[in-house]
Specification:
Length: 496
């Protein structure tokens, strides 16, 4: 059997399919963007058909790019934007509504009601999450309450709920499989991450029928075989993980204490806590990192909403740069004497503050402040927010004597200046890997290993190669001074 694996990375703004060979090198890529729908302020939807057709088309493009056919592929791995919620009719396969995207805030009132009903403790204890519209639970409830006839059909077992992985697998297998994996289930606000099952108390509290839910499998498992009509021959789907968890796998963060941080539009940092299900006292999320052979590895997660988006703001909002890669060189020329801070709370602040009402602010402006200082403030804001997450993680949990090393990936890590500043402000080394497609690589490893054509965890981890390590070079005193300035800026921005 060949060592080629096809990974589908269904993200928030685009779908990518990537073919890897057995030396983890990318040999074929297909990518397509699709339309974002914003029917009202705070509402974000995707057309389910777009998620499906871009998946099929990019799979075909990636195979053609690699000069391979489906018969050469040992297995498919799927990784996906998490929490995004779909419900469809089991008979017709037709969605009852557009997908409600993870960013969608329409269920804020519903969540406030759950909070008022005193559900926070139950939800956090069982799922490791906090009550927030971000997760799937309230989105499912909204769909059942809003779409005419949906609740009755759901109770009669005629409807299926799924995150994007489930939706794609349903379609890839010609409607034969209704499944998901443990990492995606752990983002639903309905899944008991200790017992590894949907939670009846929560289903009752949110009024969601069990008949709606998919079967939950390990991340490396038999998720079904693709309908031969799609690629010319059936290919087994053998790996699934939510995109941030797939990055943990792709970065080979398999030992407790290892941390990965992905810098795309937002930033998601996860620390592997092994088999310890750590309850955060610093407002981080407890989540399933991966589940293999029935054994769950847990993680603490911190989510920041604005990372690369701050660079987009410099480009599209302020017009200070034409391309994202100009931000680092511009920041490098900033006046070191000016202490300018940007708190990029454009859509509120995520972990560890969770203040949805906060809005962006700048501090320390003078007549001398110009584009260079604003660029530096924008890039540094991403570093400072990471420092806050890591501090919260270490307050919650740490491995005795372990030195923190951060493994980074995502579009923004192309910026050497930002990565150096990140190391400086964290006071810890930052490792950038050779293969930057770590999310897809993680999904590919799950499938490739399950197919028996890629090595085990240790063998895969040994193949992880750094492109560059950024070592902290800032003095401890300067680091402390800058962090204090940042924290003062955040304090002045928070609304509560
Ligand atoms: N050289 C660079 N310097 C700074 N930011 C960058 C650079 N290249 C890309 N970015 C930022 O990274 C983000 C794109 O990363 P990507 O991982 O593709 O994001 P996503 O998957 O969320 O769409 C954009 O917000 C962009 O502004
Ligand atoms: O599609 P991305 O890369 O923006 O990731 C989205 C996250 O999974 C949301 O939790």
């Amino acid at each position: 059997m060949s060592g080629y694996v096809l990974a589908i990375d269904q993200g928030t703004t685009s779908t990518r399919s990537i073919v890897f060979n057995d030396r983890y090198a990318v040999v074929g890529v297909g990518q397509q963007e699709f339309t974002q729908h914003f029917p009202r302020s705070g509402w974000v939807e995707h057309e389910p058909a777009d998620l499906w057709t871009t998946t099929v088309e990019t799979m075909r493009l990636a195979l053609a790019d690699a000069g391979l056919s489906a018969g050469d592929i040992a297995g498919i791995g799927i990784t996906n934007q998490r929490e995004t919620t779909l419900i469809w009719d089991r008979e017709t396969g037709q969605p009852i509504h557009r997908a409600l995207v993870w960013q969608d805030r329409r269920t804020a009132d519903l969540c406030a009601r759950y909070d008022a009903e005193g559900l926070e403790h139950l939800i956090t204890e069982r799922t490791g999450l906090i009550i927030d519209p971000y997760f799937s639970g309230s989105k499912i409830a909204w769909l059942l309450d809003t779409v005419e006839g949906a609740r009755a059909k759901a109770e009669a077992g005629h409807l299926a709920f799924g995150t994007v992985d489930s939706w794609l697998i349903w379609n890839l297998t010609g409607g034969r499989r209704h499944v998901t994996d443990a990492t995606n289930a752990s983002r639903s606000m309905l899944y008991d991450i200790a017992r590894g099952d949907w939670d009846d108390d929560l289903l009752r509290a949110l009024d969601i029928p069990r008949a709606l839910l998919p079967e939950v499998l390990d991340c490396a498992a038999d998720f079904g075989t693709t309908d031969p009509a799609i690629l010319g021959t059936g290919v087994p789907i053998l790996g699934v993980a939510g995109d941030q968890q797939a990055a943990v796998v792709g970065q080979a963060c398999f030992s407790p204490g290892m941390i990965k941080s992905t810098y795309g539009t937002g930033c998601f940092a996860l620390i592997n806590t092994g088999t310890d299900r750590v309850a955060s006292t610093n407002r981080l999320l407890t989540t399933i990192g991966y589940r293999l052979n029935g054994t769950t590895t847990y993680a603490l997660e911190g989510a920041i909403f604005i990372a690369g988006a701050a660079v987009q703001w410099l480009r599209d909002g302020l017009g200070l740069i034409e391309r994202a890669d100009q931000s680092g060189p511009l920041a490098a020329e900033a006046d070191p004497e000016q202490a300018v801070y940007l708190v990029p709370a454009f859509t509120g602040l995520g972990a560890p503050h969770w203040d949805p009402h906060a809005r962006g602010a700048m501090f320390g402006l003078s007549r001398a402040t110009g584009p260079r200082e604003l660029a530096r403030a924008a890039l540094e804001s991403v570093c400072f927010q990471t420092a806050d997450l890591l501090e919260a993680m270490h307050k919650d949990w740490s491995v005795e004597g372990e030195r923190t090393v951060l493994r980074v990936d995502g579009g923004m890590v192309a910026s050497d200046w930002t990565m150096q500043r990140l190391a400086d402000l964290l006071g810890a080394p930052v490792d950038r890997p050779m293969v930057l497609e770590t999310t897809a690589l993680g999904a590919a490893w799950l499938a490739g290993h399950k197919a028996g054509v890629w090595p085990d965890m240790e063998g895969f981890a040994a193949g992880w190669r750094p492109d560059r390590r950024f070592e902290a070079a800032m003095s401890e005193e300067e680091r402390a001074r800058r962090l204090a300035g940042w924290r003062d800026a955040v304090r002045r921005t928070l609304t509560r």
